Amino acid sequence: MSSPLSRFHSGTIWTPCLKVKLKVTDRGYRALRKFPRLLSLVSDRVLITDEALAELTSVLLEELNLCETRVTDAGIPSLAELTRLKKLDLRRTAVTAAGVAQLPAALPDCWIMR
After folding, report:
1. Has this prediction a pTM greater than 0.90?
2. Which residues contact 7 (CB under 8 A, 6 or more apart)?
3. Per-residue pLDDT band at 44 (split at 50, 70, 90)
4. How many angstroms separate the CA atoms of 102 and 112, rounded?
5. What is the DSSP string of 31-64?
6. What's the pLDDT tens digit per position in 57-100?
7. Which residues lie below 8 Å from residue 109, measured CB to CB, with a gap of 6+?
8. CA-CA distance, 77 to 99, in Å (whole number)?
9. d(CA 59, CA 74)
10. Is the distance from CB of 88 to CB of 79 less than 8 angstroms?
11. Which residues contact 12 (CB under 8 A, 6 or more apart)?
């Protein structure tokens, strides 16, 4: 079965922003590789975990909303690879203060909400 995101392809999105409000899981995030110019991704309340974050490293994200997802400190290394991030929302996740403290060195220009 295909992912809900697989119905999109790089020629059909006019804005570099994608708001995910579908029942997308970690596996569905593989489809985001097709959007290397995606700048903003709103994934609040989506059933993703740290595994999905590894799928985002090839995307040029500047804004990432992970509010109310299942992301934890284990996803910090993947988030640290998103060096173009300007805004990161980790509110209501299992990411700890210690996990967030690892990010400023890798993401010096990023506003991190927790």
Report:
1. no
2. none
3. confident
4. 11
5. GGGG-TT--EEE-TT----HHHHGGGTTS--SEE
6. 888 899 999 999 999 999 999 999 999 999 999 999 999 999 99
7. 85, 86
8. 10
9. 20
10. yes
11. none
